[in-house]
Design a protein that fits this description.
The protein has about 260 residues and is an alpha/beta fold. About 35% of the residues lie in helices and about 25% in strands. The protein is built from 9 helices and 9 strands. The chain has a 9-stranded mixed beta sheet. Helix 5 links the parallel strand 4 and strand 5. The longest helix has 19 residues.
Length: about 260
């Protein structure tokens, strides 16, 4: 199932003990919202999950539960929305998408609530020759809060398999666009993919994963739907394109309304 809609068209270190190119944001305070977000991110502290994530989540689950093959749909969508210049990847997972993308001319900033995920992703990208360690910044940050003032304007941003992990209804999740758009260049693009819970047909495998994910706090997406996400994007950006593949909402937006 596919549906497309288009609208006409150097860091300050706040933690002295942090290693080079690691920024610990002041937004990492333990407010209710950041605690709820952290529950979904905490699972990435388990090294065994990072080891099997690509095979299980991006291979088996994406293909057979979400009916959206990563090589056929999500990865090409990601690649087409990475711009040369400054790129911000939010909710890094294992760094799979970046590792499968030509990053020539791209300076990468990684942002996540989880230090282990940041370290694993940066190590992977460096080991695979995708980036240089000294040129890659890591931002330990709660994305529900504005980015630190020292962050540059980004030419592209990515949020893949992130929004369905964030707590609250769609308006609460998409409130992040109200500040992220100010860190996007006028010609920049922000894109992502998220698992929908409403107005899509989940198969048995998908329903089991959904039930488990929402029970243990990895997901909070039972009410997530494409219409609400599309409306929220149009509130903050002049140009929006969305489509649904299986139960995955793919989106990109540009020309921020600032």
């Amino acid at each position: 199932m596919a549906a497309t809609s288009t609208l006409t068209q150097r860091p300050v270190f706040t933690a002295p003990a942090a290693p080079a190119n690691m920024i610990r944001s002041d937004a990492m305070d333990q407010t209710p919202s950041s605690e709820a977000s952290a529950r979904g991110a905490a699972i990435y502290s388990q090294s065994w999950l990072l080891t099997i994530y690509d095979w299980w989540v991006l291979g088996i689950v994406s293909t057979y539960a979400w009916a959206c093959s990563v090589p056929n749909y999500t990865l090409p969508w990601f690649r087409s929305n990475v711009r040369k210049g400054q790129h911000l990847d939010i909710g890094v997972g294992t760094g799979y998408y970046l590792a499968q993308t030509d990053l020539t001319g791209v300076q990468v900033t990684l942002a996540d609530l989880n230090q282990d995920a940041l370290d694993a992703t940066k190590d992977r990208l460096v080991a695979e020759g995708k980036v240089k360690a000294e040129d890659t910044r890591c931002l330990l940050h709660d994305i529900t809060r504005p980015l630190p003032p020292s962050c540059p304007k980004f030419d592209s941003m990515s949020l893949y398999y992130l929004l369905h992990c964030m707590p609250g209804p769609v308006p609460a999740k998409t409130a992040i666009f109200s500040h992220l758009k100010h860190n996007l260049t006028p010609d920049g693009v922000i894109s992502g993919a998220s698992i929908l819970g409403q107005d899509v047909r989940h198969n048995l495998f998908g329903r089991l994963i959904m039930a488990f994910g929402n029970w243990n706090g990895m997901f909070d997406n039972r009410a997530d739907n494409a219409v609400d996400f599309d409306d929220a994007l149009r509130e903050h950006f002049h140009e929006v394109e969305t489509q649904v593949r299986g139960v995955i909402f793919l989106w990109r937006a540009s020309k921020p309304k600032v």
